[in-house]
Amino acid sequence: MTDPLPAQLAAIREEFLSLEVRDRLQLLLEFANELPELPGRYAEHPDLLERVEECQSPVFIFVEVDDNRIVHLFATAPREAPTTRGFASILVQGLAGLSAEQVLAVPDDYPDTIGLTQAVSPLRIRGMTALLGRTKRQVREKIDA
């Protein structure tokens, strides 16, 4: 049976699951450090980004869907919030270059499957689930427009 997840999300999940629980937090911190800076068009216009209210720390996202229906997710979160930044970075990297259809097909419970439920609080996992949910909602809005 093939994994329904896009390859990069499956690889991220496998990377987390290959580690002991205590080491998963370190990997999450590495992802936090890899969150790309916003491009100027968003850094200069933060009003274009949507706040993900469910996250404990302020995180903002914006989704673009290009003419080829390829999704580009942009996110920002403060460096003082490494868990939130890590979650955002996982999604930014994991969804990069996927089609709108592939993003919409990502299981809503993906955050529960990467092995962090034992390492971080359920509230933080709900924040990542909300990040994914809002991303998918923005994708739907863009392709329906």
From TrEMBL:
It comes from the Bacteria. Residues 14-137 form the Fe-S metabolism associated domain. Belongs to the SufE family. This is Cysteine desulfuration protein SufE. It comes from Antiquaquibacter oligotrophicus.
